[in-house]
Each structure stands twice: as structure tokens, then as C-alpha cells.
Write a structure and sequence with these properties.
Blueprint (H helix, E strand, L loop, with lengths): L1 H5 L11 H10 L30 H23 L5 H9 L9 H14 L2
Helix pairs in contact: 2-5, 4-5
Length: about 120
């Protein structure tokens, strides 16, 4: 259940889905976006992390993003003994190595993500 809740698959009815918010923040929901270091899909996944499939297909991109996050969420939940907040979820996506001490730039993006999720 931890993983399902952390993946945003279980959420209050009033909240924006974490994955929709992540796609909006990362690419503006652009399935053909390519980032500065070659990130692909609406979720801007680094090419070396892309598990395969069509990055231009929204469903395949979502599956790839969720597969990318599962180990990060599991590690967070083991070390912190709880699920991540929306803020921490974004930091785990963007800069997992600094989840407890994100930079000012990552904090700003994480707060924008929180605002979308909680709107």
C-alpha cells in the first residue's frame, strides 16, 4: 500500500494527481519534449533511466515514470518510516540525492508542484 499511495494512485478526491502535476511542471504535458541533457517524454526522464517503450506515448511515459520512482519511494519510506509529502515526492523525482536538503532551485520547483497538487 505504501507504494500505491506514494505513486499517487490513492489520493483524496480534491487533489490534482501527482503524475499530472509532474507532467505539467516537467514539460507542460508535451509528449515530444526533449530536455537540455536529452531528457525524454512528458516527464523528462533521463535517457539512461528510460526503461524502454515509446516516450511519446503518454501511457508508456507514465509507466516509465512510475517504474523510475518505485525504488526512490521505497528507499525514502525505509529511511524515513513514512510516505513522502508532495514536496518530497517532487524532490525525489528531480534530485533524489538531496531529498533532505534540496537547493533553492529545486525547492522553488517543488513548491510549484505542491501548489498544483493541492489546487
Amino acid at each position: 500500500m505504501f507504494v500505491l499511495g506514494s505513486l499517487g494512485l490513492v489520493m483524496p478526491a480534491f487533489a490534482m494527481d501527482r503524475w499530472e502535476a509532474l507532467s505539467m511542471i516537467e514539460s507542460g504535458n508535451n509528449d515530444h519534449a526533449i530536455g537540455l541533457v536529452g531528457e525524454i517524454s512528458r516527464f523528462q526522464i533521463r535517457p539512461e533511466l528510460w526503461p524502454g517503450g515509446n516516450p511519446h506515448n503518454p501511457e508508456q511515459a507514465l509507466t516509465a515514470a512510475q517504474k523510475t520512482m518505485i525504488p526512490r519511494l521505497n528507499q525514502f519510506e525505509r529511511s524515513h518510516k513514512r510516505q513522502p509529502t508532495d514536496f518530497e515526492f517532487y524532490v525525489l523525482w528531480n534530485a533524489p540525492w538531496v531529498v533532505d536538503h534540496p537547493s533553492a532551485v529545486v525547492k522553488e520547483r517543488a513548491q510549484r508542484f505542491v501548489n498544483l497538487v493541492q489546487s
